[in-house]
Write a sequence for this structure.
C-alpha cells in the first residue's frame, strides 16, 4: 500500500513568498559586519585576559572601567571552567571582599572564643602537656600549614601568597579555640603562638621568589616587615605575662625575661630597618643629583657611563642644574689617556649625549691615530660618510660604537647638508633593515631617533610609531627569569629584562606614545622602589619611574587597583591586627596565693 | 570559506530554522542577518576549525538561538510599552502578500504551522530555498538520515491534515483522554 505524501512542489510554492532577497540579505549582513568590526576593536584585549572577561561578566562595566568604557556585558562562552573559578578568586572586588569578610569573621570568632575562654592551667609543666595534647590532635593540619608556608612563597604567585595569609587566619582561630578548650588559652600561650606564627610567615615571605610574578607597587618585603612589627608589638605582652606567671626557677628569675625580649628585638629591628631602607632613604631628586655629581667610578667605564647618563640626563631635563665638573674631569682623563680601550667609543657616546664634550676636545679626538680599533675618528667617518661617488645607504651595523663620531662632526660643524641627508638615509635604513631584530632594537630605535634630531633631520614619528610600538610590545616581558621581577623590557628577546632597556623603552614612549595594549602597571611594578638593587640601579629605577608617571596621556593606578595588587600586604596587616587582638583579649595569667597554684584572670580584656 | 559562500550556504536553512521557532518572517529575516554577522565576526571564538561546515553550523545555530532569546526579551519589553507607528511604516515592514493567494496554498501554510516543531523545522529549512538534506543536517547537528525521516513524517502528516484525516497518534491521544 503506497503512502500519500504532500508533493514537494506544493511545499516549495507555499514557502516561496517567504524567501529572502539574495542581494538585500547579503547587503544587510555586510553592513552589520562593518558596524560590528569597529565596535569590537576595543574588545581585543579581552581575548588575552580571560580572567578579565570573567570579571566583566560578573561585575558591571562601570565598576571595572570607571565609566570609561561603553558596551554590553561580555559572555563567558569561550572561558574554561578552571579559568572561571580562578577568575572569581582573582577578581579584585571579590578578593578584597574575601579579605574584608575573613577579617570580620575572624574578629567575631575570636570575640566569641574569648567570651568562653577560662584558662585554668598556669603551671609550666601542665601547659607543656596541654600543648603536646594539642599538637597530637592537630599534628597533620599543622604539618600541612608548615608545608604551605614553605612551598607557596617559592611558587611566588601573589594569589598563592594571599591564599596562604587567608589560611593563616584559619590557623590562628584553630590555635585559639584549641588552647581555649584545653584550658591554656592565656595571654602568654596565645601571644607566643602568634609570635611564632608571624616569625615563620615573615621568614617565608623573605623568599626571593615571593611576589615577583605579579604587579606590585611596593616592595613585597614589606609583608615581612609588617609581620615582624607585629611580633615586636607582642613582645612586651609576652614578656610581662611570663613575669606575671612567676613560675619559680632560675630560668625565669629577675630580669631574664626582658633579656630574652631585648635579644629578640635586637635581631628583628635591624632586619626591619634593612627591608624598609627605601622608605628611610628614598631616591629623592636631591639624592639623584648627588649621585650624578659624585660620579662613582666602576670597574667597567662603559657600564658606569651608561648608567650615569640615564640619571644625568634626567637631572638636566628636570632643571636640577647638576655640577658635572667631576664627570668632565674624568672624561678629560679618558681622552688624554684612553684608559678604557675598546669601551672608549661608548663612553664618548654617553658624554656627547649629556653635553660634556668641548669643541677643543673634539680636535683632540680627531687627532687620534687611525690604526687604533674603534677609536680611529677618520676611519669611522669614512665608513659612515664615504665619498659621494660610492655612497650607498646601508644600515649602520655598530651604531653604539660609531655614534660619537656623528655627534663630534655635528658639534664641530663638519656636516654638509648632503652629508646630513645621507646620514639620515643610513640611520633610517638601520631602523628599516635591522641586522639583529631579536636584540637591541629598543636602544637602536632610541639612538637613531636622537641622532636624527641631532643632525636636524627629525624622524617622521607618525610613520615609525606603529613599528616602535611593535618592538615595545615584543620586548616587553611579563615573565620572571630566576630572581628577576616581571614587567620590564628585554634587551634580547626571550632573555631576562634589563633596567637600562626599560629606561630606553620609557624614553621611546615619551617620543612615540604608549602602545594601546601595554599595561604600564607592569612597568611600574618592575621599577618600583625596592629595599635593595645592585649598583646604580636604584637611581635608574627612580628616574625611569618618574619618567613613566610623567608620560603624556598616562593614567595613574586607581585606589582599587592599588588595593588589589597589594592585597597580600593588606592581608598581612589584618593578620597582625587579629594576632594582637587575640593576644590582648586573652586572660592574663596570675598566681593564686591561697592555693599556691597559678590560675588565670577570668576577665576578658 | 569566504563570507559570500557562507551566506549562500546558510541563508535558507537559517531563515527556516528561526521561523520554525515561531518568529514572524520579517523578524526572522532580521535575526538571521544578525546571527550570520555575529557568527562571522566572532568566528575566532568558535571551538574547532570554523571553516568546517559542521563546526560553523553548530556555532551559527548557537548564535541564532541567543539572538532569538534577545528578540523574545525585547518583545516582552515592547509589550509593556505603547508604541505609535505610522501606517506607512507598518505597510513597509509587513510581509509582502502573495501575488496570487490561493486557498490550497493558505491551507498548506496553516498545516505547516500546526506541525510538531522538529518536523516544521526540517520542512521550512529544506523547502524554503531548496537546501540539501546534508546542509540542513549540518546546521541541526544531526544526520542526513534523521532529516530525511523527519521530512517523510512531516509530508505524511501534512497530507493527513489536508485530507482532514486523523493520525494514529491523535487517535491514541483522544482515547487516552476518554
Amino acid at each position: 500500500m503506497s503512502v500519500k505524501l504532500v508533493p514537494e512542489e506544493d511545499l516549495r510554492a507555499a514557502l516561496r513568498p517567504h524567501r529572502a532577497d539574495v542581494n538585500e540579505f547579503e547587503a544587510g549582513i555586510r553592513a552589520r559586519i562593518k558596524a560590528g568590526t569597529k565596535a569590537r576593536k576595543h574588545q581585543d584585549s579581552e581575548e588575552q585576559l580571560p580572567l578579565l572577561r570573567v570579571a566583566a561578566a560578573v561585575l558591571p562595566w562601570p565598576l571595572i572601567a570607571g565609566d570609561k568604557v561603553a558596551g554590553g556585558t561580555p559572555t563567558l562562552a569561550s572561558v574554561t571552567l578552571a579559568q572561571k573559578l580562578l577568575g572569581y578568586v582573582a577578581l579584585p572586588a571579590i578578593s578584597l571582599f574575601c579579605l574584608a569578610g575573613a577579617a570580620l569573621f575572624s574578629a567575631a570568632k575570636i570575640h566569641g572564643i574569648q567570651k568562653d575562654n577560662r584558662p585554668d592551667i598556669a603551671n609550666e609543666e601542665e601547659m607543656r602537656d596541654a600543648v603536646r595534647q594539642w599538637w597530637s590532635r592537630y599534628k597533620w593540619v599543622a604539618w600541612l600549614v608548615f608545608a604551605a608556608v614553605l612551598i607557596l612563597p617559592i611558587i611566588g604567585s601573589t594569589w598563592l601568597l594571599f591564599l596562604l595569609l587567608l589560611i593563616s587566619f584559619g590557623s590562628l582561630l584553630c590555635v585559639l579555640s584549641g588552647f581555649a578548650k584545653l584550658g591554656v588559652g592565656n595571654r602568654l600561650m596565645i601571644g607566643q603562638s602568634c609570635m611564632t606564627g608571624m616569625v615563620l610567615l615573615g621568614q617565608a615571605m623573605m623568599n626571593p621568589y615571593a611576589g615577583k610574578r605579579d604587579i606590585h607597587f611596593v616592595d613585597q618585603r614589606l609583608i615581612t616587615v609588617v609581620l615582624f612589627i607585629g611580633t615586636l608589638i607582642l613582645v612586651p605582652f609576652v614578656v610581662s605575662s611570663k613575669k606575671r606567671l612567676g613560675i619559680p626557677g632560675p630560668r625565669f628569675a629577675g630580669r631574664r625575661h626582658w633579656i630574652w625580649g631585648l635579644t629578640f628585638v635586637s635581631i628583628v629591628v635591624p632586619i626591619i630597618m634593612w627591608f624598609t631602607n627605601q622608605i628611610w632613604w628614598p631616591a629623592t631628586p636631591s639624592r639623584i643629583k648627588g649621585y650624578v655629581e659624585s660620579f662613582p667610578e666602576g670597574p667597567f667605564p662603559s657600564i658606569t657611563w651608561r648608567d650615569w647618563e640615564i640619571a644625568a640626563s634626567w637631572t638636566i631635563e628636570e632643571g636640577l642644574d647638576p655640577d658635572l665638573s667631576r664627570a668632565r674631569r674624568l672624561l678629560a682623563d679618558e681622552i688624554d689617556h684612553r684608559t678604557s680601550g675598546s669601551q672608549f667609543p661608548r663612553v664618548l657616546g654617553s658624554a656627547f649625549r649629556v653635553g660634556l664634550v668641548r669643541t677643543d676636545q673634539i680636535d683632540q679626538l680627531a687627532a687620534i691615530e687611525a690604526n687604533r680599533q674603534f677609536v680611529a675618528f677618520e676611519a669611522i667617518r669614512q665608513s659612515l660618510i664615504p665619498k659621494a661617488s660610492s655612497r650607498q645607504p646601508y644600515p649602520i651595523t655598530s651604531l653604539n660604537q660609531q655614534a660619537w663620531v656623528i655627534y663630534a662632526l655635528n658639534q664641530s660643524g663638519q656636516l654638509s647638508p648632503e652629508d646630513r641627508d645621507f646620514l639620515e638615509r643610513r640611520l633610517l635604513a638601520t631602523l628599516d633593515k635591522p641586522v639583529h631584530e631579536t636584540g637591541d632594537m629598543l636602544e637602536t630605535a632610541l639612538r637613531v631617533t636622537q641622532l636624527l634630531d641631532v643632525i636636524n633631520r627629525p624622524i617622521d614619528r607618525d610613520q615609525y610609531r606603529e613599528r616602535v610600538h611593535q618592538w615595545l610590545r615584543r620586548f616587553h616581558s611579563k615573565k620572571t627569569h630566576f630572581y628577576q621581577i616581571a614587567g620590564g623590557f628585554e634587551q634580547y628577546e626571550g632573555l631576562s629584562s634589563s633596567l637600562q632597556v626599560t629606561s630606553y623603552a620609557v624614553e621611546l614612549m615619551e617620543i612615540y606614545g604608549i602602545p594601546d595594549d601595554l599595561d604600564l602597571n607592569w612597568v611600574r611594578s618592575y621599577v618600583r622602589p625596592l629595599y635593595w638593587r645592585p649598583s646604580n640601579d636604584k637611581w635608574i629605577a627612580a628616574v625611569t619611574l618618574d619618567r613613566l608617571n610623567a608620560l603624556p596621556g598616562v593614567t595613574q593606578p586607581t585606589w582599587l587597583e592599588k588595593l588589589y595588587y597589594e592585597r597580600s600586604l593588606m592581608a598581612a596587616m589584618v593578620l597582625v591586627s587579629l594576632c594582637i587582638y587575640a593576644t590582648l583579649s586573652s586572660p592574663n595569667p596570675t598566681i593564686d596565693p591561697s592555693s599556691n597554684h597559678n590560675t588565670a584572670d577570668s576577665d576578658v580584656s | 570559506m569566504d563570507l559570500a559562500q557562507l551566506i549562500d550556504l546558510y541563508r535558507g536553512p537559517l531563515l527556516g530554522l528561526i521561523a520554525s521557532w515561531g518568529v514572524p518572517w520579517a523578524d526572522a529575516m532580521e535575526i538571521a542577518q544578525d546571527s550570520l554577522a555575529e557568527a562571522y565576526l566572532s568566528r575566532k571564538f568558535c571551538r574547532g576549525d570554523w571553516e568546517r561546515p559542521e563546526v560553523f553550523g553548530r556555532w551559527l545555530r548557537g548564535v541564532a538561538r541567543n539572538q532569538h532569546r534577545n528578540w523574545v526579551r525585547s518583545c516582552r519589553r515592547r509589550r509593556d510599552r505603547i508604541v505609535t507607528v505610522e501606517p506607512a511604516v507598518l505597510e513597509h515592514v509587513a510581509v509582502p502578500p502573495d501575488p496570487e493567494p490561493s486557498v490550497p496554498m493558505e491551507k498548506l501554510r496553516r498545516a505547516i504551522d500546526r506541525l510538531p516543531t522538529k518536523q516544521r523545522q526540517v520542512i521550512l529549512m529544506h523547502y524554503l530555498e531548496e537546501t540539501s538534506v546534508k546542509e540542513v543536517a549540518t546546521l541541526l547537528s544531526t544526520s542526513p538520515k534523521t532529516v530525511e525521516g523527519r521530512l517523510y513524517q512531516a509530508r505524511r502528516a501534512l497530507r493527513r491534515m489536508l485530507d482532514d484525516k486523523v493520525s494514529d497518534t491523535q487517535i491514541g491521544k483522544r482515547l487516552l483522554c476518554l
